[in-house]
Each structure stands twice: as C-alpha cells, then as structure tokens.
Amino acid sequence: MGSAKNTSTASRKARIEEMRKAERARDRRGRIITITLSAVVVAALAVGGVVLFQKADDDSDKVASDGKSAPKFKTTADGEKVWDAKQLGRTHVTKDVSYAMTPPVGGDHDQVWMNCNGDVYKDELPERNAVHSLEHGAVWVTYNDKAKDADLKKLEQKVKQTPYSLMSPVKDQKDPIMLSAWGHQRTVTGASDPKVGSFFSTYVQGKQTPEPGAACTGGKGQ
C-alpha cells in the first residue's frame, strides 16, 4: 500500500513538473514573441521616421515661400525630378517671383530672357530672366561653392560649345552641380557624369520646350 502511495505521489510530482516545464516554455515563447514584436515596432518606427524625413525633405521643394500651392514633381528611377509642365506658370511679370524650387525650372518670369547662347556667367542671375531662357529650350548648369574647380572648367567648355545653354552659380542650391531645363532637374556627380551628356542631348531645344526656336541671344547679359 505504501508502495502504491509513493508511486502515486511520484506520478503527481512528475505531472506537476511537466506542467511547470510547459508553463516555463509558454513563458519563454511569450517573451520571445513580445521581444520580436517590440523589435518589429521599433524597426517600423525607425523606417517610418526615415520615410517621414525623406518626404519632408522632398516636400520642402514643393512649398513656395509665399505660401501659394506649388507644382508637384515626380522623381524618376535614376534621380531626375520632373514637374508637370501644365502646373508651371508662363506669365510675363515685372515683380519678383517666389519659386518653389532652387534653381527654378519654370513658372512666371520676366519678359526678357538671359542670353543663353553658350553663355557662362560668374555671378548669380536674376531667376526670372533665367527661367525665360528655359522656356526657350535652354539647359541651365548651376553650381555652389562646393563644386570642384576641375568640374567647373569642363562644364564651362561644354556650355560655351552648346547653343541654348547657360551656366551660373546658385549659392543656395542643395547640391554642388545641378542641371535644369523647363520642368526637369537633376544633380550630377561632376563633369564626367554620363548624365550630363544625356541631359543636354535630351533637353537642349527638347520636347519639353514651351517655345521651340525662340532666341537665346538679344536678351539680358551681365
């Protein structure tokens, strides 16, 4: 009888131990799931934060300083920004224009264009006049003080050899070297970037030109 009782007690202890093991196993699984979910949430928040910052950065180009709604752009797979030409104003104005992007790629502008017959300017240009040059089908090469001298010399040579192009500094632009045409803009890594040649061949008097064939001489110079 005592033997049976001992056997029963041992069996009960064994079941209790199995239950405890099962409970500990469930606890471990619960902690693992909790930790995993927490990690996923943290990662999602981190990615979301990056996306928000990137979107905020992109959106900064969409807000004009005068508070008016600005034309939106799309970015191609290789980094070119493209604006809907229908959203870019083309009215001749005599007052300052607050452009939504730097350098501007279109919008209302002065009735006089900057000469863009391969002209290289050493000082910043009135934006309203440069935008008129883009309307005529010019490509505008711009740079800030972070651009390398060697790149600038090569780009100057290219511009001087290319009718319907112009070049000038833009101190406040985001990247060292940028290329703009009416409704199009991209950053390039330097004068040897193959995107320089493709941008010129595509947009110098390209299909985007609102006034193809309009003059790039007889306008405003420095």
UniProtKB/TrEMBL annotation:
Coiled-coil residues: none
Keywords assigned by UniProt, alphabetized: Membrane, Transmembrane, Transmembrane helix
Region (Disordered) location: 1-23
Residue ranges, compositional bias (Polar residues): 1-11
TM regions (residue ranges): 32-53
Composition bias, Basic and acidic residues: 14-23
Tree of life domain: Bacteria
Protein's recorded name: DUF3105 domain-containing protein
